[in-house]
Amino acid sequence: MIAHILPLADFTAPKIEYSELSPLLVVFGAACVGVLAEAFLPRPLRHLVQLTITVVAVLVSGVLTGMLMNDNKELIAAQGAISVDGPALFTWLVLLALTLISVLLFAERSVDGGLSAFAGQAAAVPGSEAEREGTAAKVEHTEIFPLTLFAVGGMMLFASANDLLVLFVALEVFSLPLYLLCGLARRRRLISQEAAMKYFLLGAFSSAFLLFGIALLYGYAGTMSLGGISDALSTQTGGDTILLAGTGLVAVGLLFKVGAVPFHSWTPDVYQGAPTPVTGFMAACTKIAAFIGLMRVFYVALGGTRWDWAPMMWIVAILTMVVGSVVAITQTDVKRMLAYSSIAHAGFLLTAFVGLAQAGNGVHNGITSTQAVLFYLVSYGFATVGAFAVVTLVRDAGGEATHLSRWAGLGKKSPLLAGIFAFFLLSFAGIPLTAGFTGKWAVFSAAWTGGAWPLVVVAVLSSLVAAFFYVRVIVLMFFSDLPADAPDVALPGWQTTSAVALGLAATVVLGLVPGPLLDLAARAGEFIR
After folding, report:
1. pLDDT given at position 491
2. Phi/psi of residue 489, each to 5°?
3. Which end of the chain, N or C, is less packed with Cβ atoms under 10 Å?
4. Alpha-carbon distance 473 to 479, whole Å?
């Protein structure tokens, strides 16, 4: 048999827009370099080299993203697989900024006797002789830096995916490193490993839902492209059952990453068990990437069926706000309280997401849902990383003292630290003159303009409930007696100091002068098809 060879003229080389995709390429390239550095460099050099590679890559990628934003780049790149538009570039820049702050926390070694927050040897059995030897030798897991780069690269790709298959690949690229990072806590390793296992099993389960939904949507539309699915909705007359089933399954996979009820059960356990710097990174960055990915899929691909999926999202938004706010009241651990707080914030964001769906093709007078969500994610992200950075500094003999009873009287022991944490809590509560107030005003305004005023009413009532448990912590810190066995407040290194300062500065500035960022979010525009 003679093989048939196609003429050269019949082959069209794919067109890859390398300049527009350069921020992604820099991050993934640096992650690969970090893997090689881990394999070949002697152990004493790895920490400094890995930190340098990570910081340089994040800064270079941020500069390239800023240049693309300045040029107002908008195109569908990589043969229709990646959207380089305003919301994507805005998200890339925010993710890189928060990653830089988080990496500073990862590199901190002065608050725990010269050791980082990460286990020296992940394979060592907790409490074993191998673990004690690694701790004594101050062995470190410098693999956390390339893992972080892979995670943020996956988040950037997820937020800009214009193809369902690329969306799924990006989800796995940023999820797998997070599963590993969650299990690497130096202190309380069994809880950390349990958190990683729960996150992995539930994450794999949600990924299966997402993949099955993608398969059904492909069966309906005959394409993985978000724009192609949108076109199929306007031309096809049958197959509604497959479409609705696929939409529901995709929603399950995406809402899991958002942390929305009833797909939230992993959040408190993982937030509590993961190393606190990883918790801050994950709480801020994962939510940002997941929300933008959710909005892109439902606005671009499934916008034509918004009257079918909007009722489901209404229910999810209400449940998320109510459960997150009410259950947070019962928490006795600071990290679990912040976890349920993040669930409530996901509900507030969903109000704006659903609001635009009720408005039809968009909001023409007033703030848009995309603009509101982008601003809210920025204000929430900086305050979250700053709050978890503060948590790393309240310590006793067992490590971080996260039980709320241990924070009693903290305002008398360290007024500055307690005051900073109180300000972050007030921002979460949406008190005026904080970034959180402007963020909530933006998402509630967008939802009201879009016709989702019942959701706004529920959101306001949930915010009042949430304010109770935030104020309760503030009262505990400043108006309770300092116990005799009060935990110590560790003296932070420049890394943690910088992370707290940047988070605080962003929260203050965005509360007092929100206009420039709101304008920048408005200029980002809407998702392109």
Report:
1. 85
2. -110, 110
3. N
4. 10
